[in-house]
Every structure is written in structure tokens, then in C-alpha cells.
Amino acid sequence: MFMTEAFESLLRFAENRTSSLFETAYRPMAKEAAEPVKELFTDLSLYILGAETTVESAVLRFFDSLFPLVYSRLINPGITDLSEDYTECLRLTRQDINPFGRYSKNMVTELSKSLWASRMLSQALSLGIEVINTTEHAALTKECSKALVKMQYCPHCQGLTLIRPCVGYCLNVMRGCLASVSELDAQWREYISTLEYLTNEMAASHDLETALTGIRNSINEAILHAQLNGPQLSATVSAL
């Protein structure tokens, strides 16, 4: 639960940073860009939580939605009526003319590794919680219950209420009670090693916070690239 809240907090922070980019630097399209930005971070959140989607599809879908806005509000601000048909045409054109250059692909690459590690860690933690809950509520066998009662209360029959069972006896009883779950030991150790690996990956080159907060700069660079190539893009779109 804590890790999920941490992911959601980072995503909200990054989304707010990205939204502020449009509100401060690209006001003519800020209102219309709000929905694509929201959809992008919703898709990324769903990916981290294990949904059947990819970082690449989320990012490229965002740039598909962004191009009609950049084209009509920044490159050709004279376009006042952006019909649904024209918007869809521009969305499809984005895939062919690549108005954002290498920046859209770079953003996919930068996010993929970090979000993959976060996705794996989220799924692993969920699995661990499920296993712990299952073993925590495992029913005791009749033999185990008898052994526990004997270990705890046999001295009481002789009036020795303050004497505790010896360590060796306690261990033998617990080994018998936990025999059914002892088979998980090797897999559990491997699971812990996997968590350590994923945690180290996220703390190193796959830092999630750095990747998410970098979305703002990636989008800004992509928009600037499109603006610099505005005349060429306009000519290409007109020729299609």
C-alpha cells in the first residue's frame, strides 16, 4: 500500500509539473493539452500497477494527440476551427512525418527502464503481501495445536507457572508446526533477492523520480523541435 501511494505521489507531482509547462510556456494550447497530459499519466500509472499496456503506446499516443494542438496553435495559429476530421488527420500524419524528431522516441527510452523496474517491484510487493496473508492465516494442524498446548501449559500442572520451555523444545515444536510452509524457504529467499535487485535498479540508473520529472523537459524539447521545423511541417502536411 505504501509503495503504491509513493508511486501515485510521484506521478501526481510529475503531472503537475508537465501541466505547468503548458500553462506558462504554451498558453494558447494549455486548456486543450490538459486532457492528453492527464491521459498520459493515467496510462503510465496503469502500466506501473500491472495493466496490459506499454510505455511506448502511452507516450506515442500522447504525441499523436499533441501534434494537432502544436500544429494549429503554435505553428499555424491562424487555424481557428479544428474539426474532428482534421484533428484525426493530423494525428495520423504525426506517425508519418515525425514532427517531434528523436524526442518522442527518447522519451520512450528514458521512461521504459525506470517504469519497468517500478512495475516489477509493484507486482512483486503485491505478490509478497498475498503470500504473507496466506501463511498468516494458515490453519494449525491438530498435532501442532496439541504440541503448542503441551509446550505452554505442561509446567503449570506441577505449579511451575514462571518456568518457560527451553529453546530446543520450542524450536522442535515450531519446526513441526511450520513444516507445511518450510517448503517456501528457498523461493522466499529468491523473492527477497529479486526485491533487492529491483530496489537497487530503481536507486541507480532507473530512478523513477528522475524519469518522471524529466517528462516536462522532454515534451518541451519536442515542441521546440516542431516549432523550429514549422515551415517544413506545414508544407509536408499540405502536400498530403
Your description of this structure?
Helix content is 77%, strand content 0%. The mean pLDDT is 84. It starts with a helix and ends with a helix. The chain is mostly helical. The radius of gyration is 28 Å and the shape is rod-shaped. It has one domain. Helix 1 runs antiparallel to helix 2 and helix 3 packs across helix 4.
Topology (elements, then pairings):
Elements: H1 2-25, H2 30-48, H3 55-75, H4 84-97, H5 103-136, H6 142-153, H7 167-177, H8 185-203, H9 208-213, H10 215-228, H11 230-239
Helix pairs in contact: 1-2, 1-10, 2-3, 3-4, 3-5, 5-8, 5-10, 6-7
Key attributes of the depicted protein:
mainly alpha, 240 residues, Glypican-5
Instruction: Spell out the helices and strands N to C.
Output: HHHHHHHHHHH
* Total number of distinct structural domains: 1
| Radius of gyration, in angstroms, nearest whole number | 28 Å
Structural class: mainly alpha
Q: Give the overall average pLDDT.
A: 84
* Helical proportion, percent range: over 70%
Strand segment tally: 0
GO cellular component, one term: extracellular region
Protein name: Glypican-5
Family: Belongs to the glypican family.
Subcellular location: Cell membrane
